[in-house]
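subagent[fold] <- orchestrator: predict structure for attached chain, return C-alpha cells only, no commentary.
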Amino acid sequence: MPRSKTRVPSRARRKNILKAAKGYYGRRKSNLRLAKDAVAHAGQYAYAHRRDKKGAFRTLWITRLNAAVREFDLSYSQFIHLLSKANISINRKVLADLAVSDPEAFAAVVKQVKAQA
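subagent[fold] -> orchestrator:
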C-alpha cells in the first residue's frame, strides 16, 4: 500500500480555517497563524454568548410585560403572582409576544387575571 501524504488534508484544514475567518479585519482573515487564533476565540465567544442570549431575551420579555401591564395598573411581579393564583400557565415569551402583537388578547388575559384576584 502506498504511503499517504498529508498534502490534501492539510490544505483542506487550512481552507476551513480561512473560510471561517472570512470577514475578519486585517491579516486575521488571510494569515493562517492569526486566523487560527481568531477563529478559536470566536468559537469560545459564540459558545458563551449562545447561553447569554437566553438570559437577555428573558430580560426583554420581562421588560415588555412590565410596560404592558402598567397600563392596567399592575406591576410585573403582581401580574405574575396573579397569573399563578389564577392557574394560568402561559410563559413570559408568549405573554410578551401577545402584548406586542395582539393587545386585545393580552387585555383579555389581564382582565381574566384581575377577575380571579
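orchestrator: received. Logging for downstream: The domain at 7-116 is CATH 1.10.1900.20 (c-terminal domain of poly(a) binding protein). The chain has a mean pLDDT of 95.
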